[in-house]
# Entry
Amino acid sequence: MGKFDKYKIDLKGMQADSCKYEFVLDNLFFANIDGPEVQKGKVNVELVVRKTSRAFELNFQTDGMVWVPCDRCLDDMEQPVSSTDKLLVKFGHEYAEEGENLIVIPEDEGIINVAWFMYEFVALAIPMKHVHAPGKCNKAMSSKLRKHLRTTPDEEEEDAFIPEDDVLTEEETETPIDPRWNELKKILDNN
# Structure
């Protein structure tokens, strides 16, 4: 039996018009699938397969928690995920992906493995930016970051950072200018 055999859905042998499946995606699942976005987690997936006149409608409800690296301190952090996704599957001559959510599988097989689709739905549910709550980042990493960032002198919160818009550019800083450049500017101003 393969690693992902329990995620195979036999559409051809489906007796009822609707079937419900429940899966728990755990650390072993994420390790086996070896995807780049998620390495650990515990996610419950409820799958309802409904037979229509021309295709099969697979509705996924995904809820759970994954562990991803914090964008600020790189320590693992819990990230809740929740999504509702739909996939349409129809029979054809060979396997093909047509469009964003339409899959064609060979009619003689009649089986679809939903493991990778569930992983993608979880990965897509993760927000682009994931950082710890204020004060929860790794203290050592936060102090190293602060050494390299320009901060305000009255900053009290330990994990507060200045947005990129507030950082002064080289032109805005008041550094003394070499007097020779001032003389050259006078030549430009005369023309």
Remarks:
- Residues 155-160, 162-168 have pLDDT under 50 and may be disordered.
- The first helix runs from residue 27 to 33.
